[in-house]
């Protein structure tokens, strides 16, 4: 019986199995070409022009041929005349000048819109941190009162009588801050302080601007190792720090009351005071314990409304002094010599370092008469827009606007003034 292939080509076909027999042919040898014209080739052509597979029916051997893309496959042209198509040149993807300017203007507009919002968000976070610092101080004061049945004094005792001075080496003018350190988890710093001596013994007035002390503060000052410690809890993150003294700086001040005296204040923290919560008949929620004040510039050529303390000198009554200081303009205040060391230390209870009063509303120009012991209007101040944070006797912290009524603010500073307070 003849196979299909034998029927198609009877003369030329030999079975592959017979190629290794006596006739000498091998399967790897080339088959003889059939007589007559070559058989027609069956072409598998893809319209895409990617690959074509064709085969010869006589050989049964597959041959693959890859055609180049973009070739003209028209059957009317001979193969040698088929040329590659030329694609159109693509346009460059670069910006034009007008497009670039439009993009820049859009970005600038977005920055102008978003930058103030970002700054406001950052300030809100800083103000919250400041508020939390005051809350921690308030908690420490309440714990101190629970342990001692009395609040710490705002400034320790000295030997001044009728004539005020910058102090002696035996004056123990320590601040309220130094006494509450154990209740702020600063027991190690507290143990470094020798309360039997002056805060900066053997120097007075924080060894102000004494070069050799600034060069070696921990060796030359008895309490130097404690005094140089910077405590973040005493610093407002919104404020600048331009002070160049080596001591730990301070923003938070204890309230001396509503009067100008640097000694016998009518607030919670006067000099050598022993205030109990029961003495605050105006109500703890209506009486300030602490607030904040911007630190000094340490530069007499630079004027800062919120940080400077201007010396009016002369002889004054308290009411006249308050009115003159309250009416000062920026240009008028610059005529007077100013203190530039505000908040330079948390260790000593100096009026310009760790205390303030309620003579004037927040963020007003501050004044003194000679030295702060003899009279000052030490206003609360801050870098927060439009006001200051204030810690009240009940431990609450409230943001007080700089536009608060002056009489209301003075009433908040007293512990037993009997004033009827409006909302603040």
**Alpha carbon gap, first and last residue:** 119 Å
Low-confidence stretches: 1-13, 15-33, 46-74
Shape, per Cα inertia axes:
globular
Oligomerization category of the chains in this entry? single chain
State mean pLDDT (0 to 100 scale): 83
What would your notes on this structure say?
This protein has eleven helices and twelve strands. The chain is of the alpha+beta class and 424 residues long. A five-stranded mixed beta sheet has the order 8-4-5-11-12. Strands 7-6-9-10 form a four-stranded mixed beta sheet, with helices on one face. Mean pLDDT is 83; it is low at 1-13, 15-33 and 46-74.
Summarize the structure.
The chain is α+β, with helices and mostly antiparallel strands. Helix content is 25%, strand content 11%. It is globular, with a radius of gyration of 46 Å.
Structural descriptors:
single chain; 424 residues; alpha+beta; 5-stranded mixed β-sheet; 4-stranded mixed β-sheet; 11 helices; 25% helix; 11% strand; globular; disordered N terminus
Indicate the topology.
Elements lengths: L3 H5 L33 E3 L6 E5 L6 E5 L30 H52 L27 H4 L7 H5 L19 H5 L1 H4 L3 H4 L24 E4 L32 E5 L16 E3 L6 H10 L2 H4 L4 E2 L11 H4 E2 L9 E3 L7 E2 L9 E6 L4 E5 L4 H8 L11
Parallel strand pairs: 4-8, 6-9
Antiparallel strand pairs: 1-2, 2-3, 4-5, 5-11, 6-7, 9-10, 11-12
């Amino acid at each position: 019986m003849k196979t299909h292939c034998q029927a198609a080509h009877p003369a030329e076909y030999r079975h592959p199995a017979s190629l290794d027999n006596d006739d000498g042919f091998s399967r790897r040898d080339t088959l003889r070409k059939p007589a007559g014209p070559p058989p027609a080739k069956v072409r598998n052509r893809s319209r895409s022009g990617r690959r074509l597979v064709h085969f010869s029916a006589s050989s049964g051997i597959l041959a693959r041929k890859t055609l180049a893309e973009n070739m003209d496959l028209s059957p009317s042209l001979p193969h040698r005349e088929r040329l590659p198509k030329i694609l159109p040149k693509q346009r460059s993807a670069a910006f034009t000048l007008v497009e670039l300017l439009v993009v820049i203007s859009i970005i600038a507009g977005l920055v102008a819109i978003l930058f103030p919002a970002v700054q406001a968000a950052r300030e809100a976070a800083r103000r919250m941190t400041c508020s939390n610092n005051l809350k921690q101080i308030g908690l420490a004061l309440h714990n101190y009162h629970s342990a001692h049945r009395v609040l710490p004094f705002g400034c320790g005792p000295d030997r001044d009588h009728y004539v005020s001075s910058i102090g002696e080496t035996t004056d123990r003018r320590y601040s309220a801050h130094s006494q509450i350190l154990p209740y702020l988890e600063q027991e190690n710093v507290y143990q470094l302080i020798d309360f039997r001596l002056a805060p900066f013994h053997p120097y007075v007035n924080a060894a102000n601007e004494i070069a050799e002390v600034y060069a070696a503060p921990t060796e030359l000052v008895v309490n130097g190792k404690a005094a140089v410690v910077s405590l973040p809890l005493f610093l407002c993150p919104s404020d600048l720090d331009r002070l160049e003294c080596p001591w730990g700086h301070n923003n938070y001040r204890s309230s001396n009351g509503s009067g100008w005296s640097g000694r016998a204040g009518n607030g919670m923290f006067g000099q050598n005071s022993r205030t109990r919560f029961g003495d605050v008949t105006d109500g703890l929620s209506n009486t300030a314990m602490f607030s904040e004040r911007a630190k000094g510039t340490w530069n007499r050529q630079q004027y800062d409304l919120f940080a400077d303390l201007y010396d009016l000198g002369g002889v004054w009554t308290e009411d006249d002094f308050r009115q003159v200081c309250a009416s000062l303009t920026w240009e008028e205040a610059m005529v007077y010599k100013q203190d530039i060391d505000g908040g330079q230390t948390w260790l000593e209870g100096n009026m310009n370092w760790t205390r303030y009063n309620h003579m004037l509303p927040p963020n007003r120009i501050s004044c003194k008469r000679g030295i702060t012991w003899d009279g000052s209007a030490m206003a609360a101040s801050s870098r927060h827009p439009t006001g200051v944070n204030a810690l009240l006797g009940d431990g609450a912290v409230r943001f007080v606007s700089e536009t608060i009524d002056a009489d209301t603010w003075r009433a908040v500073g007293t512990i037993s003034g009997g004033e009827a307070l409006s909302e603040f």
